[in-house]
Amino acid sequence: MKRLALVCAAVAMLGGCSMFHRQMPAAPAAPVAAADAAPAVETIPFRTGVSSATVEKMAKQQGCTGGQGAGLITEPGPVEVYRMRCDSGKVFMARCELRQCRQM
């Protein structure tokens, strides 16, 4: 009973249940992007790699042809990732580790 009295007193001191019905202030509006702002999508320049021809052959076996071919999208090294855009609009990607490539 004493605990109930303490809880009631604490609730009364804190403003009762009305504290749960207060409206939160509105969040500030997001800033409007300027016309000369940077594009939202970063483009990667096309680069060939040591396994580009291998990835292009793999893509052709999957029915993916066209475009510039397989471009390297990571830094050259022991593990590389290649991407090729197909005529159909799909994207073929492969991961090559020490020139051993697998479709992603």
Structure description:
The structure is a single chain. The chain has 104 residues and is of the alpha+beta class. It has a domain at 52-103. 21% of the residues lie in helices and 19% in strands. The protein contains two helices and four strands; from the N terminus they run H-H-E-E-E-E. The chain has a four-stranded antiparallel β-sheet with strand order 1-2-3-4, with helices on one face. The longest helix has 12 residues, at 2-13. The N and C termini lie far apart (66 Å).
Structural features:
about 100 residues, alpha+beta, 2 helices, 4 strands
Helix and strand content put the structural class at: alpha+beta
Count the DSSP helices: 2
- Summarize the main sheet: 4 strands, antiparallel
What share of the residues does DSSP label as strand, in percent?
15-25%
Round the Cα radius of gyration to an integer and report it. Answer: 29 Å
Regarding quaternary structure, how should these chains be classified?
single chain
> How would you spell out the order of helices and strands?
HHEEEE
> Using DSSP, what is the number of strands?
4
Distance between the termini: 66 Å
Query: Which residue ranges are poorly predicted, with pLDDT under 50 across at least 5 consecutive positions?
Result: none
**Taking all residues together, what is the mean pLDDT?**
79
Morphology? elongated
Helicity range of the residues?
A: 10-25%
Widest β-sheet, arrangement of strands? 1-2-3-4
